[in-house]
């Protein structure tokens, strides 16, 4: 039994036909970790009506559904089911656009890659980021401190459901994090935010699904929270908690990317107000394959 399997004590019932990658995104682990947790799952095809093993501590309260009585269980022996009754879990329910994966990095131009992070407190938070191939190298200017941003002037463009305080908070969250790494601070660009707002509204209209798109030339991080008022710092901390120097491109590397000079973020509420999605676009884009966040 693998170390992941040994720690498995929670299972998640699944309906529909999500892929292993979509389920890995849902429980906020890599595809490799998902396969180690669920060694009997055949990831060459979608999973149909089954229980899957979730990582320790994952909160399934907002996500669980009642799977059919004869659903297969893809969990190691000794694991226990934890199946609270709630709304249906169907990670494959999305629009007909192009889906992205968080486990493959293409060498073709502008190949997006997504990854996810979840923080379980009283809410559920999910995030994704994009990765693109290199076109040029930009040296990062040196900076050791970040100043808190002042209240911005009334925007001439849309930032979705974000308040003026939200704009300050998300900008400060980025700059405090970047300052701790010696990266230059970023400014909030309302033109970039308008692009982010269009995509945030689109994602919210599909139940706060997380799928990259609509960012044009920019980089992009996504986050979703189910329940409660969103905290910009809390959502950002989900990105910043990822490993910067583990040989992968993720939310943290995009947020810290040396050559990024401005951000534009927006939020939108899903139908009925049960979820909120946050979109942050980055200019210039980061997460270029083969390059380091330290130099951009």
């Amino acid at each position: 039994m693998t170390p992941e399997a040994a720690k498995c004590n929670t299972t998640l019932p699944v309906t529909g036909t999500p892929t292993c990658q979509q389920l890995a995104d849902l429980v906020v682990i890599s595809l490799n970790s998902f396969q180690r947790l669920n060694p009997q799952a055949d990831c060459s095809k979608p999973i149909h009506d089954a229980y899957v093993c979730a990582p320790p501590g994952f909160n399934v309260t907002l996500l669980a559904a009642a799977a059919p009585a004869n659903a297969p269980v893809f969990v190691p022996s000794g694991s226990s089911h934890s199946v609270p009754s709630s709304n249906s879990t169907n990670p494959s329910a999305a629009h007909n656009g192009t889906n992205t994966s968080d486990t493959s990095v293409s060498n073709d131009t502008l190949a997006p890659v997504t990854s996810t992070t979840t923080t379980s407190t009283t809410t559920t938070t999910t995030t994704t980021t994009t990765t693109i191939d290199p076109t040029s190298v930009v040296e990062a200017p040196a900076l050791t401190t970040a100043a808190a941003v002042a209240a911005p002037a009334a925007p001439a463009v849309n930032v979705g459901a974000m308040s003026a305080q939200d704009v300050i908070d998300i900008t400060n969250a980025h700059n405090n994090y970047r300052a701790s790494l010696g990266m230059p601070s970023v400014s909030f660009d309302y033109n970039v935010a308008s692009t982010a707002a269009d995509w945030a509204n689109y994602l919210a209209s599909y139940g706060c699904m997380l799928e990259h798109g609509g960012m044009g030339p920019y980089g992009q991080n996504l986050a979703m929270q189910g329940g409660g008022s969103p905290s910009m710092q809390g959502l950002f901390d989900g990105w910043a908690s990822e490993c910067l120097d583990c040989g992968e491109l993720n939310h943290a590397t995009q947020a810290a990317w040396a050559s990024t000079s401005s951000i534009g973020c927006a939020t939108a509420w899903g139908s009925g107000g049960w979820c909120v999605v946050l979109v942050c676009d980055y200019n210039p884009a980061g997460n270029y394959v083969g390059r380091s966040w330290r130099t951009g």
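The longest helix spans residues 164-180. The two ends are 40 Å apart (CA to CA).
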